[in-house]
């Protein structure tokens, strides 16, 4: 369980708060990207970026000289928010309309991953998450590429999740109101892979993509 | 066109920057939610919330006494970021792996929407966006509900979009490397509406949901 802090305790709709690592990890692992907030000149900046998790750490990467990676590597306070939208909740009154979602908010300071071996291990872990087995098929990274890539890890210390699921919660008297009510599910899915127009003939779709997307390998 | 400012000018991969209103509006209108960054005690906080657009303003709402709505209504500096993930870009080297996406970043200060008539018009506009025609079918809002709802609008003055599309951009020498390369599309879609278990018998799925999701009305 994560300890509730002033920042992670869910103030609005506290029954939606989740503080167990299993829920937080599952949301992090399902999402393909997060939004990172930093403070620049006393004002907020929010940037989307890919992420992955290794154990109790959230990893992010980018160009080593990007403003976001530089700020994170330097230990800036960050807030990482991850949101999965699950449905539109249509109630009998406008007031009770809502969305079903699972979100995670993490506060802290990231630390840079330094050294060729540690960076390569992190990059491999990221690729394993997206396309298991692909890393070893690729043209190997050059020293220059490894040096140009900035990787940071944020320990999952101060984190919480917020989850809404299920049908609308209408006022008791409104259940008699004759309007359709329910949930319109929202799903994010991977489609049929589109080969690079420059792909050499005879290179088949790898099994890890067929498995993931339902297409044939 | 939006004027490029120090904050909105795309520094990394400047060729991905878009500053025309048409692109910015289209991304805002397609997305169902955004991430809002604010500064609290000199540290960043990023919260997901629903949004809609009316003309050159981005609207958000919530409980009038939520911390986010209170801060926005009081004129806090905010950064609103909207991200649509379109695909995973699988290149021949790890280094050139990427994602296809469309994102918008907006900086500014929101202003509260005050008064019963203005708030009702904004709520109706939000519902029209999700489910055209539904507003008039609902149990009408009470004065208490209208008073409890906080609505803010952020003028689209300082905004830009960033877009990546298309196949991987590999190093010239890597096109001969025998690994599958291409794009795995990612799409967010609405599913078959799920009626509230408490829905009274005989209430049909409204046409506006059938049209939107492809299900039968």
Give the DSSP E fraction of chain A (strand runs of 2 or more residues).
Answer: 35-45%
Whole-number count of domains of chain A: 2
The helix/strand series of chain A, from N terminus to C terminus, equals EHEEEHEEEHHEEEEH
Shape of chain A: globular
CATH class bucket of the largest domain in chain A: Mainly Beta
CATH topology of the largest domain in chain A: Pnp Oxidase, Chain A
Question: Largest protein interface?
Answer: A-B, 95 and 95 residues
Distance between the termini of chain A: 40 Å
Counting helices, strands and paired strands, the structural category of chain A is: alpha+beta
For the secondary structure, the number of strands of chain A is: 11
Q: Give Rg of chain A in angstroms.
A: 21 Å
Structure characterization notes:
- Two copies of one chain form a homodimer.
- Chain A is an alpha+beta fold.
- Chain A has two domains: about 15-165, Roll (Pnp Oxidase, Chain A), CATH 2.30.110; about 190-215, no CATH class.
- Chain A is about 20% helix and about 40% strand.
- Chain A has helices at about 20-30, 65-75, 115-130, 145-150, 205-215; strands at about 15-20, 35-40, 45-55, 55-65, 75-90, 100-110, 110, 150-155, 160-165, 180-190, 195.
- In chain A, strands 1, 2, 3, 4, 5, 6, 7, 8, 9 and 10 form a ten-stranded antiparallel β-sheet that branches.
- In chain A, strand 5 (about 75-90) and strand 6 form a beta hairpin.
- At the A-B interface, strand 2, strand 3, strand 5, strand 6 and helix 3 of A face strand 2, strand 3, strand 5, strand 6 and helix 3 of B.
